[in-house]
Write a structure and sequence with these properties.
alpha/beta
Amino acid sequence: MNAVEEVVCRVPSRFDGDDQVRFEAPIDIAGEPRRLWFQVPGELASRESPGDGFLLASLVPAMATASRLVSETPVSPSLVENIHRLQQIYTCWFPTLRPVEIVAEHLPPAADRPESTFALFSGGVDSFHTAITEAPRLTGLLYIRAMDMLEQDQALIDSVIGHLSSAAAELSLPLALADTNVRQFSEPWADWATQYHLMAPAAVAHVASDGITLLLATADRSYRNLYPWGGHPLTSPLFGSDRVAIEPIGWGSRRIDRATALGDHQVALDHLRVCWRNPNGEFNCNRCEKCIRTRIALALVGALDRCPTLQSPIGVDEVLRTELNEVTVDHWRDALAFAAERSIEHELIPAMRRCVDAYESSSAKSRLTVDLNGLLEAEDGHEFLLPNRERIFDTMWAHHARWLTGQTLRRLPGRLGARFRRRRR
């Protein structure tokens, strides 16, 4: 009988600095030694349950290697229960992951304590919207440097933290700074966007559980556009425990709604940072899809010229040069719907529509190529045609009636070819 591989979370060491505490532990992933660390403000650092953060951060690597997940530090039984439910979802979403056994001693139930609510804060559209709209119930804001700045120069890091600190002060909220290597630790076993980008900050919150009882996890899209993603209203609460709850927030609004709402808040416009590329240490590059999309949103409501961190004005040519993908196109569709709902007339709208049309045409061509190749490679076409005939016909005719030349039509087998030839006549 083959031995079961294990991911073993060793007991973390604690290093106390002047105002920060660093937890670090060796973790073996299927025989490969790794080190995972978290750094959080001293007043937030967990004295009882830092193991919860290490366990959560190690979950996907364990599932990816089909390894039993072992914690040498006691963990919250409610987190273990949530992880079992989370695995049911992740194995449906991600076929390469396997459910794994969790082996750990359990902590006693959490004692009652005052609620302390923090919101993730990066200075972007979504986090600014949450900081402003949820300010009355917030204890503070949490910025995790490694979430979006892996290999940036120190000057940019200092600039970002300076902007965030100023914004937090203007909002009368304390800013807690944290850091971790969880992103590097999880490679190559976890996909950051679809599996990890909210699990990681949740792990940080667990390590900071002496000062955080509730973490608000802001939506980066809406209920209209749900699919397997690292931050999802179905899975986000399962990253929590009876010590630290994770609350998904903002899913009832679109990003275009949140972005345009910031036009009424100068503090957000003064410090807005949306770029994740930051070429040459730029605070916002003003050229990537995310920068262009945000500039468009503010331009639609006449607020772009009041945002000193983004370039104004924005030209039609800049919009037309922007390439969309299956993730970003939803935000552009939402922006077009937003403009139509409010009867906004703007010179950028036709260019936005052309970008969406270009993506949809390219996507349809890709699907068509796959479908057509399947038909032409099948012996008589029927083994591929029967289960897919309606989708193939509708996609091909709707997007490529002109492209379907007589020669192509003659090559299509069986009933599908006859149907196209009749339609073309």
